[in-house]
Records
---
Amino acid sequence: MIGRVTLAAVLTALALAPAPAQAAPSDSSVRWSVQPSSAKGPDGRDYIMRKAAAGERITDYVGITNLTQRPLTFNVYGTDAYNTEDGSFGLLAAAQQPTDLGSWIKLGAAKYTVPANTRLDVPFALTVPAGATPATTPAG
């Protein structure tokens, strides 16, 4: 029997952070959302949970929606998740290198610009290392 690794991203598949702005716009509110998606848009999932065998490569999508009247640029990266002391879902800070499932995630770019009032469906690949042991592993 081939062992399976359950890959769970409870909140999102990827960590998102608006990139620093060059100049502050008159409306300084930044509003955006993120959700599991497909190449054709949202697919009804509330979170991403996939099963994959050691050595397997899977592709999935995350939709980033810009809810403002101007383009926004996001730094997008995969990272490890953990449970905080109060039981919440936490993600490593951007400066910390992931060492678990987050390190298995690869994107086509580090930054994505989403036009005003638009959703961008961003593909990502996840390759489970050949020596991975069966586990439920969270990431973001």
Note: Residues 21 and 78 are 22 Å apart (CA to CA).
---
Amino acid sequence: MTIWTPTLDPTLPRYRALAEAIRLDIASGLLKEDERLPPQRRLADALGVTIGTVTRGYAEAERHGLVRARVGSGTYVNAPVSAGPVPDRRFGHALRARPSFGIAAESDDSLSASSGVMDLTMSLPPPHPARQQGMAAALTAISHSPEAIGAECRIPE
């Protein structure tokens, strides 16, 4: 069992911040496949949150395929779905829009149309490896060449 204690993103609800920390630490290699996460009670004590928050965070991570729970045995890390780059924490939760695992941010009034940020993760079904890789490739292509969007997407007049 690991002595892993995550740093929670204060801009997210705690359970979502826990799921996001799991995702980031898997992507960075800090958490390895089949590694056992701390028991819920121990992690709740370490983070200063309720056991319900940790239970919900682990459930959110499991829903997104990050971990698997074995009754009576613990919660274990799944293999990363893609080997994409780890998102940069400096850009805020909207730009870390969870492309690797589909964890979407809660609604945020600061993300207006004028901000130029479009969060497409809210309408995606649970992630599938092939879908995730295709979406990651498409988003990478768009980020490197925004003018490509105009050639592919026509808005009717």
Note: The helical segments are 14-28, 40-47, 51-63, 92-95, 129-144, 147-152.
---
Amino acid sequence: METLLGLLFAYQVFILYYFALLNLLYAYFALSGLAMVARYARELSEVALKDLLEREAYLPVSILVPTYNEEKTIAAAVGSFLALHYPEFEVVVVADGPKDRTLEVLKEAFRLVAVDWVYRRVLPSKPVRGCTAPSSTPTSWWWTRKTEARRTP
């Protein structure tokens, strides 16, 4: 009987060491795999982002920014849009009759000048009262000033 108990105890110790070793191997493989994935993701993100942005398959994008009394935040918002990493885009800021200094803040922050811009009216809307654009910047963007909602065209 004692021989059987000794064999059973030895078997239990063997199973314990086997599972401990197996779990240590699993932990090692998981950590080394995680390290490889992190290294691969770091290398891929740097190379792939540059590769994706340099492709000519991307279409130009127009970012429309509707504003109404945004004097305090409009310069930071437009600045963040202009800081995007995209091959070709334009930012169109549309004001719907603001009653504060939104346009003046943008003119000061981005050196906007009045431009004559001819546009084709596709959808029914209020008339455009004026357009401004930056005097010198590589990314094109526009400020469009619509007629106030209370006025009649």
Note: The longest helix spans residues 2-54.
---
Amino acid sequence: MNSVVALDVGGTLMKGAVVDRDGTARAVEQRPTLRQPDTVEGILAFAADLVASAGSPAAVGLAVPGIVDEVRGVARYSSNLGWRDLPLRDIATDRLAVPGGLDARRAGRRGGRARVRCGTRGR
């Protein structure tokens, strides 16, 4: 568990990477964000591919646009993705079998937090 998966979901494009303990980003990819009703499935498929590339990542961090309840892991509202009260963290954790976090999309903050929480910061 020397890596984490970071996924930044935008209205039209998703960017993802596996980030190693030393901060090196590998398996860096971009994919289009699918429109409803396929948005969540597209996010989870991309995350699953990154998890497979990572082997056994310590965590998966998802950054999504809109209003997010970070404590509960719920995407409260996203106008461009059509979400309201979506428990995305729990959905992703169940599907990927990896601990996860959900954050409002703010310059990749979730990936950095995952590194700090997993003890990989600054190594």
Note: Residues 119-123 have pLDDT under 50 and may be disordered.
